[in-house]
Each structure stands twice: as C-alpha cells, then as structure tokens.
Amino acid sequence: MTTAEKRLGTVANYVDERTGAAGWMKKSLTKVFPDHWSFMLGEVCMYSFVILLLSGTFLTLWFDPSQREVVYEGVYEPLKGLKMSAAYASTLDISFEVRGGLLMRQIHHWAANIFMAAIVAHLLRVFFTGAFRKPREFNWILGILLVTLGLVEGLFGYSLPDDLLSGTGLRITSAIIQAIPLVGTYISFFLFGGAFPGVGFIPRIFTLHVLLIPGAFLAVITIHVMLVWYQKHTQFPGPGKTEKNVVGQPILPVYMAKAGGFFFIVFGITAFLGAVASINPIWLYGPYNPGQISAGSQPDWYMGWLDGLVRMAPPLETHAFGHTISWNILIPALIVPGILFTGMALYPFIESWITGDKREHHLLDRPRNVPNRTALGVMSITFVLISLINGGNDIFATVFDLSINQIMWFSRIAIFILPPLAFVITKRLCLSLQRADRDLVLHGRETGRLVRMPSGEFVEVHEEITPQERWTLTSHEQQPALELSETDSRGVRRPGGFKNKIRVRLSKAHAVSVPKVTAQELKEIEHH
Amino acid sequence: MKHLSRYRRHRAAAPLLLIIALLGIGTTFNVASATIKSTPNTFSRSAAIDEGKQIFLKGCSSCHGLNAEGGAIAPSLIGVGAASVDFQVGTGRMPMADMSTQAARKAPVYDARETAALAAYVASLAPGPAIPGDEVLNYERDGNTAEGGELFRNNCAMCHNFAGQGGALTQGKYAPTLMGVEPKYIYEALITGPQSMPVFSDKTLTPEEKLSVIKWIKAAEAEPNLGGATMGRIGPVTEGLLTWVLGLGLLIAVAVWLTTKAR
C-alpha cells in the first residue's frame, strides 16, 4: 500500500465509523447500468434541471417580481421614459446592465426549452419500449406528473418578465380559466387579484415559479430516480440479457465518468446556445399593455400545441341561465388535454388490462414487436404535431406563402383524419418490419453477390446472421390474445359480458403479429 | 499623315481602333443619358400631366379604365392622390405582375421620372394626399423613438409584428415587412392605406407621431442583434425549432457517441 492509499483509507474509515456508509457505498458503487443512447435522455432532463436551478437563482438576485408602475430610465434607448411594470424594467436591467445577465437569461430559457424537449423524448422512449410495464407503473405516473409540472413551470417562467408577448399569454391563460363553467370567473378574479391584468398575478406566479414548483420538482425527481435505482434500469433484449439480470457498466468508474462528463456537455451546449442564439428578446416586445398585441404571438413550443388546438376550434358558445359556456376554449384547452394526460397516466394499467399480463418486465420491447402500442404512440405524436403546426399557422402562412385560413381548415380536418391514418400505417410498418426480421433469421442477409451454379442457374448468396443477432431477433415473447369465455366452469353466465367482449376484441388487436421464427423452423433450415 | 499610315497594317491597329470607337460611343451615350436625367427639373407641370396620361393609357388603363374611373378588377384612381401613385408604382407593386391575393413589392417598372409623371396625372384628376417632401420627412429631427415604439405597438404591431417583420392576414394576404422600407413610402402608406392597410389620417396619428413611428422602425432596423442570432425576430416558433434540431439534436449525437462501444 502506498502512502496515498493509506491516507485515503484513514479518511474513509473515519467517515465510515461515523456514518456506516461503507456497506451501502460498496453495494451502490458497483451497481450496474446498461448502456444505450436513449437511456441518457433522462439524464439530459436532470442536468438541464440543475442548469435551470443554477441560472434561475442568479436571475432572482436582480428580478423584481412586482407589477408596480415605474418609468424606465435604463440604457435601452427605444424604451426610455416609458411607463412599465417593475418586473419588466428589472428584466431589461438584467439584460442590459447586469454583468452576464443577458447570457444567464438566455441560458435559463434555452435550458427550459431543452428540459421540456428532453422530457418529451424521454417519455416517448419509455413509452415505445414498454418500460412503463410492471413494476414501473408508479414511476410512469410520476413522469407524467413531471411533464405537467414542467408545462406549468415553463408557462409561469416566460410570463414573469411582463412583456407584450408574455402578457398576451396570460390573457389567454385567464380566458382559459374563465372558460371553466360556473366557477371560472371567480377563480380568475382570485388568481389575478381582480379583473385582468390585475396587480397580483406576477408576484404570485413568481413565488410558485421559484419556490413551490421547483420544490415539487426536486421531490418528484428524487423519487423518480430513486425508484429507477431501486427497481434497476431496464435493458434492451440481447444475448446474455434476461429478466433477472442487468448487463452494463458498474457505476464506478466508467459510468460515473461518462455521466459526469455528460453533465458538462449538456451545460456546454446550453451555454453555447445562450451565447450565440437570441431567445425571448423582451426588449423588442415592449412592456405589456392589454390594448396591444403583436402579429405572430406564440407561446413556447411545449405550449404551442394547446394554442394550436384553441386556434382551430370553431366559435361555439352556449348561453343558458345567465351563464356563458365557451366550448371553443373549454374543449381544446381543458377537456382535450385533460383526456390526453389522464389517458397517458393510465396507459400502463389499460395495457395490462388488455393483455392480461401481470408479470414483471425488465427487458424492453423493440417497438416493432408491439405494433398496437407503437401505432398508438405515433398516432398521438401526429395529433400533437398537427396542433403544433396550427399553433404557428401565421408564421407558416408568411414563411411558406400560404393562406392562414387554409392551414386552419387543413388542421381542423387533419386532426380527425391523420392520427387514425398514422395508426394504421404504423401498425402495417411494424408488421412489415417483423416480417423482415423473420426473413433475416430464416434466410440471412442478402449480400448482393451473384454466383453461377454448375447447372447454369444464378443465385444470390445469403450470409447467415450471427447467433447473437438471431437471439436478439427471436428472444421476445409473442403473447396470445386473451380468451374469456362468456360462461364460467359450471356453465353460468359471467358478469360483465359487454366489458369482456371489448377486452377480448382489444386484446386480439393488440396481439396481431407476424409469427416469429421457432426453434423447430430454425432446425429445419439448418438441415437444408 | 504618312508616318501614321505606315502603321495601318500593324497588329495593334485593329484592337486600338476598336477601343477608341467603344470609348467614343460610351462617352456619347453617357453625355446623352445625363441630359435626359436632368430634364425632370425643367419639365413643366402640364407637360408632366400629359406624359403621365400617355403612360397611364399604355400601362394602367386596361384595368383602371381609360379615365382612371376603375373597373371590375381595379379601383377608381380619382382622388387617390399623388402619394398613392408614388407608393404603389415606386415600390413596384403597380403595375401588378399577376392577379394574386396581394400586390407584392418588386423592382419598379417605371423610373423616377415616369412615376412622377403618373403621379402628376392622377393628382390632376381630383385632389388627394400629396407626396411628402424631404422637409416633411425629417424624422430624425421631429420624431421620438420611445413614443414611436409605443405608437407602433398600439397601431401597427398587430399586423406587422412587434419588430416590424410582417405577419399573416386572412385568406393569404399579409402585412409586409417594414425592414428596409424608405421613410417616404412608410409615410405614404400611412396616409393612403394601400391594400388591406387602414388610412392613418392626421387626426389618428399626427404628422409628428407618424415621424416617431418611422424613427422607431428605423431604430429597430439598425438595432444590432443584442442576444445573438435572432432567427427572424418572429417569436418562439423558430426558438422551438432550434431547441429540437440543434439543442436536442446535438445532445442525442453526444449520447450516441458516449454509448458507442470501443472497438
């Protein structure tokens, strides 16, 4: 043992005698994590959250969350002498007079955009690979909670500077709140402290934005990650990988080095964007004034699809008993996202009800092997993309020389037609890919090498795939559809006949697959 | 001359003569065209009206009518004033290239003299807004940037976007960008209300306020990109695009690189 090792040992011993950490550390530091690029999307979320905490703390040091009216006397000439809220004036000061302030603002905003994008990408990865299945259903729900928190946190964040664009967003927010039947107007009055824009909303959302929601985030992220730690990470199927093991790198040293390095890369890319690309140039928007609006007022991208849904809603209103129900806002801004998010949160339970599969799963699905789920995912993406495009309809109209009305009508029709179409196409594609896998296992890879046989016949040489590849392509299980008889063993009709009928039909649709190659078939091939 | 004629069969003679001839023609053309350019100062009002009428009959009357009374596809020009003609013809919007939803700005068909003649002819039909002179357009002296910004956000931003980048209107029409538009044309657009744009009379926006708006637009045009590349100054749509393409794109590329097995 060298002196350095001895010294380290003394320190470790000192800590261990007082905390008893050695046992836990020994177990944890050798914990194994599987390697795949898509498993790092969650890390991007976590690292951008850390960047958000750091840059956000910096911004709070100078930001004045008040709607008190002040006269701007700062350095930005085109706004000099104008009346504005202290929130807006202090954001201008952060941008132009605080050293590094604009860079920090831009890093904070880019990090928020990347945070949400990474969350969505991570969510899609978990969905398409079936990583939400037992025992990870709770963690899936926590993930949905994090998306929802992120949406609200982002909305509050870009609303704080009280510029013309963010004020326009708050105007719509208040309209959405008012669209809640019966209580909407009261809630809006309470939240805004009177009629819009009021004087209380910015200070209130400031407290929520910097204290309550980040606190909730920290708590939920901690549980989210601890559950991954406790339940162990899922892995893609492959030789040597089973439901009972985890194949990968131990956390020390390689994984830790990679993950630690990746944090700095995420920070670096975010800082790079903050340094070279302008985001939310509030000085150009001007101070908020309810009488003003700019052409092309859009929310940030993660709210854009909601804006797009509201933009495509036809003007439907009901007046009854002295109340107005604005269906044109209620349906696109509250009911549709409500259904989407509830459906997303419940999906693991819905799927296991359909398949009747109550077993634990630690091996991931290749998306093509579960065509129904993959098609449902692509269908949802299509729905959101159409909404998102309609959310930017005025920008698309000017950039691509189109009519805003045509884009709106396209979206109104496409939102009903394209998602189901995407479902059907994706399902067919998945089945085709399964068929291709089957061909690959049975006949090997086409080499493009033509050989002339002694008989004069030309054949293309097929190269056999490796046993490892063959394992990867055939190890998945193909669960048969549920069969529920209408009567029990004694011939008595079971309750819930209609429910069972639906369940059986869904299960049948879910189980549609190209039969994978069996061991028997492989043996026969080998004899040829 | 004898010593010159000795060289007439020299190798350099032909190219030299060609160069002299070209120089001669060029100089003559330059002098001649310079004389044409200087005429607008001297040609009289009635001569301009006559010339404008001739141009009008040739280039405009097929749509606007022989007496500018308008027709099924084009409005009457009686009373629109010289400012309207100067704006529409000077920015190349008229004559229209095609009957699409909106006349787009393009290279003008008529030169300054012809445009002035057309304006004089249309102005002679009935009184209307006149072309603002340089004295009127002194926005640097008479305008106020901050006030102009506030007026712009109150009156213009809902169509032309917060930074004057333009925006979409209904049915494929649009409010064009204001970047790079000459102050004279902005002023003329304000007082004549071309296409979908409303007229901003001197009661709605006083001449000083119009100049403030112009001064703010010019300030926005000259403003350096303080936060880095702006991607069009059109708000969060391009920011979202960059987030996914460059931000997440780069991060995924790095993740792929980090998880590649060493070979």
TrEMBL record, chain A:
<dbReference type="GO" id="GO:0009055">
    <property type="term" value="F:electron transfer activity"/>
</dbReference>
<dbReference type="GO" id="GO:0046872">
    <property type="term" value="F:metal ion binding"/>
</dbReference>
<feature type="domain" description="Cytochrome b/b6 N-terminal region profile">
    <location>
        <begin position="11"/>
        <end position="237"/>
    </location>
</feature>
<keyword id="KW-1278">Translocase</keyword>
<dbReference type="GO" id="GO:0005886">
    <property type="term" value="C:plasma membrane"/>
</dbReference>
<feature type="transmembrane region" description="Helical">
    <location>
        <begin position="110"/>
        <end position="128"/>
    </location>
</feature>
<feature type="transmembrane region" description="Helical">
    <location>
        <begin position="172"/>
        <end position="196"/>
    </location>
</feature>
<dbReference type="InterPro" id="IPR005797">
    <property type="entry name" value="Cyt_b/b6_N"/>
</dbReference>
<keyword id="KW-0408">Iron</keyword>
<dbReference type="InterPro" id="IPR027387">
    <property type="entry name" value="Cytb/b6-like_sf"/>
</dbReference>
<dbReference type="GO" id="GO:0016491">
    <property type="term" value="F:oxidoreductase activity"/>
</dbReference>
<feature type="transmembrane region" description="Helical">
    <location>
        <begin position="409"/>
        <end position="426"/>
    </location>
</feature>
<dbReference type="GO" id="GO:0022904">
    <property type="term" value="P:respiratory electron transport chain"/>
</dbReference>
<keyword id="KW-1003">Cell membrane</keyword>
<feature type="transmembrane region" description="Helical">
    <location>
        <begin position="140"/>
        <end position="160"/>
    </location>
</feature>
<keyword id="KW-0472">Membrane</keyword>
<feature type="transmembrane region" description="Helical">
    <location>
        <begin position="370"/>
        <end position="389"/>
    </location>
</feature>
<keyword id="KW-0813">Transport</keyword>
<feature type="transmembrane region" description="Helical">
    <location>
        <begin position="208"/>
        <end position="230"/>
    </location>
</feature>
<protein>
    <submittedName>
        <fullName>Unannotated protein</fullName>
    </submittedName>
</protein>
<keyword id="KW-0812">Transmembrane</keyword>
<dbReference type="InterPro" id="IPR016174">
    <property type="entry name" value="Di-haem_cyt_TM"/>
</dbReference>
From TrEMBL, chain B:
<protein>
    <recommendedName>
        <fullName>Cytochrome bc1 complex cytochrome c subunit</fullName>
        <ecNumber>7.1.1.8</ecNumber>
    </recommendedName>
</protein>
<dbReference type="GO" id="GO:0005506">
    <property type="term" value="F:iron ion binding"/>
</dbReference>
<dbReference type="InterPro" id="IPR009152">
    <property type="entry name" value="bc1_cytC-su"/>
</dbReference>
<feature type="transmembrane region" description="Helical">
    <location>
        <begin position="241"/>
        <end position="260"/>
    </location>
</feature>
<keyword id="KW-0479">Metal-binding</keyword>
<dbReference type="Pfam" id="PF00034">
    <property type="entry name" value="Cytochrom_C"/>
</dbReference>
<keyword id="KW-0677">Repeat</keyword>
<dbReference type="Pfam" id="PF13442">
    <property type="entry name" value="Cytochrome_CBB3"/>
</dbReference>
<dbReference type="GO" id="GO:0020037">
    <property type="term" value="F:heme binding"/>
</dbReference>
<feature type="domain" description="Cytochrome c">
    <location>
        <begin position="143"/>
        <end position="221"/>
    </location>
</feature>
<dbReference type="GO" id="GO:0005886">
    <property type="term" value="C:plasma membrane"/>
</dbReference>
<keyword id="KW-1003">Cell membrane</keyword>
<keyword id="KW-0813">Transport</keyword>
<keyword id="KW-1278">Translocase</keyword>
<dbReference type="InterPro" id="IPR036909">
    <property type="entry name" value="Cyt_c-like_dom_sf"/>
</dbReference>
<dbReference type="InterPro" id="IPR009056">
    <property type="entry name" value="Cyt_c-like_dom"/>
</dbReference>
<dbReference type="GO" id="GO:0008121">
    <property type="term" value="F:quinol-cytochrome-c reductase activity"/>
</dbReference>
<keyword id="KW-0472">Membrane</keyword>
<keyword id="KW-1133">Transmembrane helix</keyword>
<feature type="domain" description="Cytochrome c">
    <location>
        <begin position="47"/>
        <end position="126"/>
    </location>
</feature>
<keyword id="KW-0812">Transmembrane</keyword>
<keyword id="KW-0408">Iron</keyword>
